[in-house]
Amino acid sequence: MKRWIAFRAILIKDVRSYYLKPPNLSWGLLFPLAWTLMFFLRSQDPIDIRSLLPGVMTLSVLFGTTSMLAVTVTFERKGKSFERLLQAPIPLGLLVLAKTSGAILFGTLNALVPLALAAFYIPLEASGAARLLTACLLLAFSSAFLGLLVAVSVQEVFEAQTLSNFFRFPMVFLCGLFFPLERIPLPLRSLSYILPPTYGADLLRGALGEEILFSTASSLARLTALCMILALLCLRAINRRWID
């Protein structure tokens, strides 16, 4: 019970200290809004909003979650506050989950912004709501652990942003977010199948009634497995770099 009280305290502290700050709130709203408008208004021709929505939602989760977590954890490490948390009498796994939960919630809410805008133009079926939420949460989990892995690898905040972009921008082109995977050259296509957004975007397509590349069960299993792998890598990196 005391462990979950500590979990709650860490989560509330992060939400108040970082995610509820006006600049972060406005950025969290404006960033997905900018992505949405960029694709919805890119031409005078009619746009298939339903086909673009999964990609926009995926980008909102990916960039929002990784940016916030990589920067906040790096900032806390620089201020020595994260080292104090490592000395708390709670398991390391629970501590990592507490630190990532705020970013996961932030990224998931980011994805709801373009979804809410799209609801004014296309009908959204309630039957796909659970699948949409599951896909957003798993995407946020994987993005959070990716952001944490970046934070473990750097010393400065600007290094965290630079290294994050090294991973994020290739994902935009390799995960089939806005054009089919078949168009990606075969040597690069193999990378697409080990990137979480590939399966997250496919789950979102299925939830919105679009054509999918993988079965829902397959995408869920692969995305869950990638989340677990990233979590284990984060724990290993923290043990090796910050504890040992």
Write out key terms for the chains shown.
244 residues, mainly alpha, 10 helices
Short description:
The protein is mainly alpha-helical.
What would you note in describing this structure?
This protein has 244 residues and is mainly α. It has one domain (2-243). The chain contains 10 helices and no strands. α1 (2-19) crosses α5, α2 (22-40) runs antiparallel to α3 (49-78) and α6 (129-153) packs antiparallel against α9. The relative contact order is 0.14.
What ranges have pLDDT less than 50 throughout 5 or more consecutive residues? none
What order do the SSEs take from the amino end to the carboxyl end, as H and E? HHHHHHHHHH
Mean pLDDT: 81
- Mind telling me the C-alpha Rg? 18 Å
| Helix content, binned percent | over 70%
The SS-based structural class is mainly alpha
**What's the total number of strands?**
0
User: How much strand content do the residues show?
Assistant: under 5%
Instruction: Give the overall silhouette.
Output: globular
State the major sheet. none
The tally of helices reads: 10
Taking the alpha carbons of the first and last residues, their distance comes to: 28 Å
Overall tally of domains:
1
